[in-house]
């Protein structure tokens, strides 16, 4: 959360729906709330790494579990690449892809060495992110915007793209499973703490999204925001504050480092569960001196670095969102079966989350949907080939 989705995701959302993207943010928040609720119940029933995967496998069978796991792992790799490319755009725009690849590999090495950002360090990093975004918001509202130049095309203001905008903005809410479904039992919180903490985190992200969106629109307008590949940097130039761009860029890049680390840990959790079930080579689960699966981390890092070198951040973000929406559609379906004899409202929330995830995934760009289709076809075939089990 408070990563690439906030720094870059508002631009493709504006391109999809213009002013209606605000409603898209509300739909994305609702989908995230449903997914987080399902994740929390699954984690309480299936302890350990990959709780959603374990629930889908137990409740729905082998094939849905493989589809969901394949979509999740591919989505996390694309998310790593997208976050790293946004970081690269802030550090060195002329060589963003190379910086992104290097950043991914360095973070993977740090994660493999056992680095974890917890406690006061985590709060300081969150504070840094909010300071950077707060500075951008103050600049946008403190300086009168330049009147827009007349353009031939009318501003984007179609309500048709609301679900497409919601699908892109769903990326900004990802990360809740670090609280709702921790892989490490020592990090598990009491149920009341999980509910309050998750609700607070989702609300904070939604508020930050809306405030930053309002600031960018005030300074750029909907049309310019929709066309901007790096809105946080571009808005400083538009507000005659280009001198602050290096400071904001360094702050944003540093703020994105723990987001990369969190994405690595999320990938690792589900991947270890798949290795445990024999659908990935057991060699990948081998741990080093720090107790981390170094080969698994290395595979994820190399794959993400390759994607970062080849794909721009917004297409990578769209693909990641589409894959992870497919995963959450299946995870919500598994939670619906898990809760069939349990509380009524969580079960209904799982049903709503399943429907929303499907609708949002089907509203993503065609290229993202086609790439996701390849993943959900090839992934189960590959994992079945590894385990030689098909039922």
TrEMBL record:
Claim: Transport is one of the keywords in the record: no
Main localisation: membrane
Keywords noted in UniProt: Membrane, Transmembrane, Transmembrane helix
Name of this protein: APC family permease
Recorded GO CC terms: membrane
Recorded superkingdom: Bacteria
InterPro entries, per database record: APC_superfamily
Membrane topology: Multi-pass membrane protein
Entry keyword Cell membrane: no
Cell compartment(s), UniProt: Membrane
Gene3D superfamilies reported in the protein's UniProt record: Amino acid/polyamine transporter I
Bilayer-crossing regions: 25-46, 67-88, 94-115, 122-146, 158-176, 197-218, 238-264, 294-311, 351-382
Family annotation (PANTHER family): AMINO ACID TRANSPORTER-RELATED, MEMBRANE PROTEIN
């Amino acid at each position: 959360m408070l990563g690439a989705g906030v720094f870059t995701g508002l631009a493709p959302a504006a391109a999809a729906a213009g002013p209606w993207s605000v409603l898209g943010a509300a739909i994305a928040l609702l989908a995230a709330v449903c997914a987080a609720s399902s994740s929390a119940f699954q984690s309480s029933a299936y302890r350990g790494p990959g709780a959603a995967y374990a629930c889908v496998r137990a409740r729905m069978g082998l094939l849905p579990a493989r589809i969901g796991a394949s979509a999740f792992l591919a989505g996390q790799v694309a998310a790593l690449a997208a976050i790293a490319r946004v970081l690269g755009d802030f550090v060195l725009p002329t060589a963003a892809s190379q910086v992104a690849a290097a950043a991914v590999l360095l973070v993977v090495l740090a994660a493999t060495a056992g680095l974890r950002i917890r406690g006061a360090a985590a709060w300081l990093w969150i504070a840094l992110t909010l300071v950077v975004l707060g500075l951008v918001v103050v600049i946008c509202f403190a300086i009168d915007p330049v009147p827009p130049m007349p353009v031939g095309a009318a501003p984007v203001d179609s309500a048709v793209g609301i679900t497409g905008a919601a699908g892109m903005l769903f990326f900004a809410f990802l990360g809740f499973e670090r609280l709702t479904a921790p892989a490490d039992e020592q990090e598990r919180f009491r149920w009341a703490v999980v509910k309050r903490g998750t609700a607070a985190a989702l609300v904070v992200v939604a508020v930050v999204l809306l405030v930053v969106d309002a600031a960018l629109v005030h300074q750029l307008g909907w049309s310019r925001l929709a066309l901007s590949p790096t809105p946080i940097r571009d808005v400083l130039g538009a507000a005659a504050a280009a001198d602050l761009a290096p400071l904001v860029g360094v702050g944003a890049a540093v703020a994105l480092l723990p987001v990369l680390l969190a994405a690595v840990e999320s990938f690792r959790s589900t991947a270890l569960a798949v290795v445990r079930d024999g659908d990935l080579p057991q060699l990948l689960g081998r741990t080093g001196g720090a107790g981390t699966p170094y080969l698994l981390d290395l595979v994820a890092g190399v794959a993400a670095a390759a994607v970062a070198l080849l794909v721009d951040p917004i297409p990578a973000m769209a693909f990641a969102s589409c894959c992870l929406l497919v995963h959450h559609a299946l995870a919500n379906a598994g939670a619906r079966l898990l809760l069939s004899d349990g509380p009524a409202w969580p079960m209904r929330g799982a049903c709503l989350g399943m429907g929303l995830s499907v609708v949002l995934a089907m509203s993503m760009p065609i290229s993202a949907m086609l790439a996701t289709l390849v993943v959900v076809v090839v992934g189960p075939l590959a994992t079945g080939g590894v385990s030689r089990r098909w039922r």
